[in-house]
Structures are given as C-alpha cells and as structure tokens.
Write a structure and sequence with these properties.
single chain; alpha+beta; 3 strands
C-alpha cells in the first residue's frame, strides 16, 4: 500500500501566515482584548480549534500573552 501525504501549497502557507499576521495586528491595535470577545468577532471565519492554534502561534512567537481570559499584545510596537 502506497503512503500518501497531503501536499501543502505555497498559497496555503502564505494564506496561513497572513491570517496569523492579521489576527496579531488586530490584537496589537486593541492592546488587550478578552479572548471570548476576539473569538466572537472571528467565529464566522475560524472554529475554536483554529482560533486557539492562531493564539498559540502568536504566544509561541512571544507576540501575545494570555492573562486569564485576556489576550495582551507584548510584541514590538508599530
């Protein structure tokens, strides 16, 4: 049986990076935002797992921190 892998295209990678950057930009503009409020604004675009992966990516890059239910921008200013 042949092993098959899903091919990730350059366009998909670019779209993912742009998505994470756009959410990061929104958090940076807001400074601090309740996570539930941010998710509610984005829920038509992402499910909760996708949302959490985006937040985790931003946290892993030391751009945001979660303080209880708040998400705070800790990365560089504009």
């Amino acid at each position: 049986m042949a092993h098959t892998e899903a091919q990730v295209t350059t366009a998909q990678v670019t779209a993912a990076i742009r998505t994470v950057a756009a959410v990061g930009d929104a958090i940076r503009e807001l400074g601090t935002v309740p996570s539930g409020e941010l998710y509610a604004r984005l829920s038509g675009r992402f499910d909760i797992d996708q949302y959490q992966r985006i937040i985790d990516t931003l946290k892993g890059a030391d751009l945001v921190a979660e303080l209880g239910h708040l998400i705070k921008w800790i990365g560089p200013a504009k």
